[in-house]
Fold each of these.
Amino acid sequence: MAALKPGEVDLGTTIMAVSFDGGVVVGADSRTSTGTYVANRVTDKLTKVDERIYCCRSGSAADTQAVADIVKYHLDLYSSQHGEMPTVKVASSLFQELCYHNKNNLMASIIVAGWDKQNGGSVYEVPLGGSLHKCEFSVAGSGSSYIFGYCDKVFRPNMSKEECIEFVKNAVGLAITRDGSSGGVIRIATITEDGVERQVVYGNQLPAQYTG
């Protein structure tokens, strides 16, 4: 598996997505780190690849940005050729194809989530190595190891949109508290048939956590 190349920046991140009846909620922190140095504290790790499809990026910032740009190009081409919006499965399959066939050169772990008229809201994860998995919820990045237990305990199927937003906010907030490579603000996007609602949870609005 490829390590960071000279000059590359590691996102050092917490990303997650969860589906509900009618859409998905995606969220991420905003810290980009290079070792112990914070290179950017307000990064937007929620990347739009189609009107109602977003990806959450972790790993090498350069690799994940390049892969997202290539997928966006192919999805635009798909829409032009087929006269319809691509499905989330099509988008995630493109990510998987690129990540798998370049797994020795890329450091990229990506969550793909969105809404389409065929399947409604859906979440797919493409971890390091380029496999593809459909999930009800997914967490990734350096902060994810701190919150898997919380997510497994709190998540339940058929949560409402509001419950999913709180779930993402609390989970990413916990990761920011414990993971030195996660921080800044929490960016959240709610994707439904009606479009995309973006919101930002600033540092002074983060859920209160026990810090000893």
Amino acid sequence: MPSKRKSLMFASASFFSICSFVIICLVLATKNWVSSTISFTSETASTTTLFTYGLFEGQWSATVVNGIAIPETSFQVEDLMNNGTVKSIHILIIVLLVFSLLSSFLSAGFTCYNSVSNPYQTFLGPVGAYTWNSISGICIILTLILFAVNVEANELSVQLALKTTSPPSRPYKLSNSYGYSYWIMLLILLLHAATIIIVVFYQKARYSKRKEQERPMESAPKDGILF
């Protein structure tokens, strides 16, 4: 059976991993990743279109300068993508989040197991916790970068506008505002960092305790050791 200190520390690490798992589920399910406002002028009128979407679903609405408004309409994000590069990056983002979700789940399982047992296999111990939290953290960082690239560099919102409203004519104004579904992924990184830090502190405490136990033997007289 593990010591009380180990049980408490790994139980805390398991709690943080479970929290990160729940938040990733929330990130995948919600559609408040980004809100984009596109203002463009055609030959007949000026139109302002607002898009709010996530990885799977979104909503858009439009207002014409003379007061005519198009009510909010739901859409499927992937169905409106007509650019191969944008679509490939979008699918990669989903795959990375699924990997992060699985890694968080495995991290929760490993840390929970360590809170009630002393595994003999090295990978089932702290090494496993380090591995799964690192993989999940890297996937989250790549997701943050790739989504921003798709929105800013590849103008994902404009791609969606081409399929929902009249094609915007250049020049047009585009402004993007990232929502809580995007920024909450930073909290996932903090939770993974907290899990790793807890495991590091446990290993340091274990190493210090082992050194203290070895010290009496090192300081004992050699004659006493022989008899």
